[in-house]
Amino acid sequence: IVTLESVKMSARNLLEGMIHEISETPPFISLKIDAGIPLTVYLTRNAVEDLNLKSGKKIYLAFKASDVMVF
To answer: Which domains can be identified in the chain, with CATH numbers?
Structure first.
């Protein structure tokens, strides 16, 4: 989950980060995030447009540990 504001939820993995790069990775858009560690997030074009995501914008990431892939 990517949000523009911190939200109260049961997810234990909630990180604040800054978008550093946005690029096309068809069929998705990839976001390079600095959240104290480098992260890459893949979103649909609609999600990026709906949230008006831009490089330099602060976002919050909420996720389940089982959804993380380490490369």
So the answer is: 2-65 (2.40.50.100)
Q: Is the pTM of this model over 0.85?
A: no
Q: Are 50 and 43 in contact (CB under 8 A)?
A: no
User: 40 CB contacts (<8 Å, ≥6 apart)?
Assistant: 30, 31, 32, 33
Under 8 Å between Cβ of 16 and 64: no
Q: pLDDT tens across 36-60, in order?
A: 999 999 999 999 999 999 999 999 9
Q: Are β-strands 13-25 and 2-3 bridged in parallel, bridged antiparallel, or unpaired?
A: unpaired
The tokens describing 3, both together, are: 């949000």
* Closest alpha carbon to 35 in 21, 18, 23: 18
Q: Which two tokens stand for residue 43?
A: 């979103």
Question: 21 with 33: CB under 8 angstroms?
Answer: no
